[in-house]
Each structure stands twice: as structure tokens, then as C-alpha cells.
UniProtKB/TrEMBL annotation:
GO terms for molecular function: DNA binding. It comes from Bacteroides finegoldii. Signal peptide: none annotated. Residues 6-64 form the HTH cro/C1-type domain. PROSITE patterns: HTH_CROC1. It comes from the Bacteria. This is Helix-turn-helix domain-containing protein. CDD domains: HTH_XRE (cd00093). It holds the Pfam family HTH_3. Transmembrane segments: none annotated.
């Protein structure tokens, strides 16, 4: 799981060790071991700290576990491991011969901390209504959502039925990927067939880069 820099969090809250350990219900010795890295934070304690202080307070002190990130991806730098690159679909020059890594690097993306999307190589903001899922709203990707993606290196193993971001000569498409009846093709399926977004076949040879969608963040403005 992600690491939480307990010492920096505690100091930002202007608490000494005695006050902090009472707030979260742990012993002095355990707190010292957490702060010096001798022991790892348990998921139960992490959730307890989030509940006590609030997610917005602890986010700046969450450190991604770089063992779960594709370190050979050039745009990722573990010196800045808290932040995940974000780029807009409109700015993604992902047609041949480019790919996601090149597009991200070329666009000098802004980076954001999104702890619940740990393990992403990048995020992108979507456009269009084709992936709105009325049958299973929890799997919906509304317009202007932020999708977390992990670059999919394998070309011999595809997880059929999952949603991928595909870099094509015409730009990036985000679709559920299914086998095609046509050899050398995949079938791209939209969730929102009610509005006329019908499945279509895409030549696998035209896909320059693949990234599996691992999570979605929906932003709803109330004011």
C-alpha cells in the first residue's frame, strides 16, 4: 500500500509525539518506529488516521509505492512519486509513431496527487458521452472525468471486457475491448449505446499504445 510520512504529517499538525499517538491510539514506541521507518503503517491504522484528520489533510503526505509503478516509463520520476501526470485528450498527440509516454513527456503535463489511484502511470480528462453507463452507473465514465491509466506492455495478453485507452492515428479512444470476429482486429464497445454509440472493429496494427483504465474520478461542481 502507499506510505504515509507520519513525521511530516504530525509536524504539520503542530503535535508532539505524545499528543499525536494519543489521537490515533498507538503506543509511543510504535509511533517512533513508524517515523523512523522501522515498521510499516498498517491499512487499519492508515484508515484510522484518514478518519481522524480527513483525507484532504493527509494527501500531501502520502507517498506512492514505486514498486507498483512501471519504473521504465520515462515520464515517471520517483523523486516526485507523490504526483501522477494528467493530460487532456485534446493535447495527446498519440497517433503513430508516438505513444502515451511520448505524449506525456512532450506536453510537460501537470501532476496531481490522487492516492486512491495508486499504481497509475498517468491520468487523462475525458470528453464525450460514449462511455456513460446507465445500466451500471458505478462503471460509468461521464464527460470530463479523470481516468487513471496503467500502460499495458503486453501485446499477447489482453484482458477482454476491460476498458482501455488506445492510442490511434486519430487520437486517443477509451473503450471496452472485446474480441472481434475479424482476424487482426479488436472490437471497441461503448457503454452508451442508447445514444447511438455502436461497437466497431479497429485494426490492432493501428493501435500504437495501450493503457488499461484502473479507476475514474468524477468531478461535480456544486457552485
Amino acid at each position: 500500500m502507499n506510505r504515509l510520512n507520519i513525521a511530516k504529517l504530525r509536524k504539520s499538525l503542530k503535535m508532539n509525539q505524545e499528543t499525536f499517538r494519543k489521537e490515533v491510539g498507538i503506543s509511543q514506541s510504535y509511533l517512533s518506529e513508524l517515523e523512523t521507518g522501522k515498521k510499516n503503517l498498517t491499512e487499519e491504522l492508515y484508515n484510522s488516521i484518514v478518519e481522524r484528520f480527513g483525507r484532504n489533510i493527509i494527501i500531501p503526505f502520502v507517498e506512492l509505492d514505486c514498486d507498483n509503478i512501471a519504473l521504465d516509463t520515462p515520464h515517471l520520476n520517483c523523486d516526485n512519486k507523490n504526483a501522477i501526470p494528467l493530460f487532456e485528450l485534446e493535447a495527446a498527440s498519440c497517433g503513430m509513431p508516438s505513444g502515451f509516454e511520448i505524449a506525456i513527456e512532450a506536453n510537460k503535463c501537470d501532476r496531481y496527487i490522487i492516492p486512491d489511484l495508486a499504481g497509475c502511470d498517468f491520468t487523462m480528462r475525458t470528453r464525450g458521452r460514449s462511455m456513460i453507463n446507465r445500466k451500471y452507473p458505478e462503471r460509468s465514465i461521464p464527460e470530463r472525468s479523470i481516468v487513471g491509466c496503467r500502460i499495458w506492455k503486453s501485446r499477447s495478453h489482453v484482458r477482454w471486457g476491460e476498458v482501455y485507452a488506445l492510442a490511434t492515428p486519430d487520437g486517443v479512444v477509451i473503450k471496452k475491448v472485446m474480441p472481434s470476429e475479424k482476424e487482426g482486429y479488436i472490437k471497441c464497445v461503448s457503454f452508451n449505446e442508447e445514444e447511438g454509440f455502436i461497437p466497431y472493429d479497429l485494426p490492432a496494427s493501428e493501435i500504437q499504445d495501450w493503457a488499461i483504465v484502473v479507476g475514474v474520478v468524477n468531478v461535480m461542481n456544486w457552485v
